[in-house]
Amino acid sequence: MRALLMERFGGPLTVREVPDPTPAPDGVVVAVGASGVCRSDWHAWSGHDSDVVLPHVPGHELAGTVAAVGDRVRRWSVGDRVTVPFVCACGVCAPCREGQHQVCLHQTQPGFTHWGSFAELVALDAADVNLVALPDSLSFTTAAALGCRFATAFRAVTGVGRVAAGEWVAVIGCGGVGLSAVQVAVAVGARVVAVDPSPGARGLATAMGAEHVLADPAAVVEVTGGGAHVGLDCLGSPDTCVASIRSLRPRGRHVQVGLLPPELGRPEVPMDLVVARELAVLGSHGMAAHDYPAMLSLIGAGRLRPQDLVTRELTLDEAGAALVEVGRAPGVAVVTSF
Ligand SMILES: [Zn+2]
Ligand SMILES: [Zn+2]
After folding, report:
1. CA–centroid distance, residue 107 to ligand 1 (Å)
2. According to the model, what pLDDT value does residue 114 have?
3. Where would one find the signal peptide in this protein (predicted)?
């Protein structure tokens, strides 16, 4: 198969012929129909993820068609249209037994713990636990954004942040996950302030329904009349983490959505404010496959439109350059030709 191969961290990414994967007994191989280019791929390429072993194939926001099935798989057959969360759970550990697959103790992540979806084929483990059937109405291109950024934003807003109608939500960082969060928060009736230094990203945030867009997070307290009820750091940096916490009103909830590898520096969380204002500091790490139906039904009803986030469709040969420059162009890029 053709695959985007990474042979050293921070080095060139080149399309090569490599051996086809075979499914594990409980896994499948999926013929990739679309694969989104995400900031997490950039982290993998930059050497921020200790799970990545070279040579490596990145890519984790995928949708496609089941092409081969392991002996122990019960629920899936060749030809099924599927997507998958970026955290593939084992289904049997203690968090999994509680339904919290996104923090599975034995998780695998395509594009991190094994070769990912910037390739014609990708192997996925524990298929009966992790695959999500796609309705025919949902294109692979749209679905590719669900496994990581859109699903992550959906759960961060609804499940972890528990955003209620009428609340103010500050979205700090308007890349793919931030724009998704804007859209989800607006859909649940929240009032959204979106913050990003890029005018292009702010324009897209307005198009997703943000009531205010700001270049400087310090102005959130003023435009919300005393601070946001919920702040989301959707970029993942020491500055944006602290900015979200400082934007909150008393009893507000900070949700850390963007990854914050130690290589980027540790945030100086203002614990004095956390105590004095009784703030909650919460983490959000993807979404389990069994939580997808609620999101898919809102997409089916047209209340969520992940397709509006996709600004560029690329070939596999263009994927390497897009990955290295992720975040420079606004919106979401998806590889749709392999
Ligand atoms: Zn598990
Ligand atoms: Zn991602």
Report:
1. 6
2. 97
3. none
> Domain locations in the chain?
2-148+287-337, 162-283
Residue ranges of the alpha helices (H) in the chain? Answer: 39-46, 94-97, 127-130, 140-144, 151-154, 176-187, 199-207, 220-223, 238-246, 271-276, 292-300, 316-324
Separation of CA 47 and ligand 2 centre (Å): 16
pLDDT in tens, 318-333: 999 999 998 788 888 9
CATH number for the segment(s) 162-283: 3.40.50.720
Nearest-CA neighbor of 175 among 299, 324, 38, 47?
38
Q: How many whole angstroms from 6 Cα to the centroid of ligand 2?
A: 17
Instruction: Go through 87-124 and write b for each residue having 16 or more CB atoms within 10 A of its CB, e for each that does not.
Output: bbbbbebebbeeeebbbbeebbbbbbebbbbbbbbbbb
Give the chain's mean pLDDT: 95
Supply the pLDDT for residue 147. Answer: 72
Residue 48 tokens, joined: 């921020």
Blockwise average pLDDT, block size 10, the chain, 338 residues? 97 97 97 94 92 96 97 98 95 97 96 97 97 95 87 96 98 94 97 97 96 97 98 96 98 95 92 98 95 93 91 95 87 93
Res 205: pLDDT: 96
- Which residues hold their Cβ within 5 A of ligand 1, which is an ion? 89-90, 93, 96, 104
User: Residue 103 C-alpha to ligand 1 middle, in angstroms?
Assistant: 7
Task: For residues 225 and 228, give the distance between their C-alpha atoms in angstroms, rounded to a whole number.
Answer: 8
> What's the CA-to-centroid distance between 51 and ligand 1, angstroms?
17
39 C-alpha to center of ligand 2: Å? Answer: 6
Specify whether the CB–CB gap between 62 and 122 falls below 8 A: yes
pTM for the model stands at: 0.90
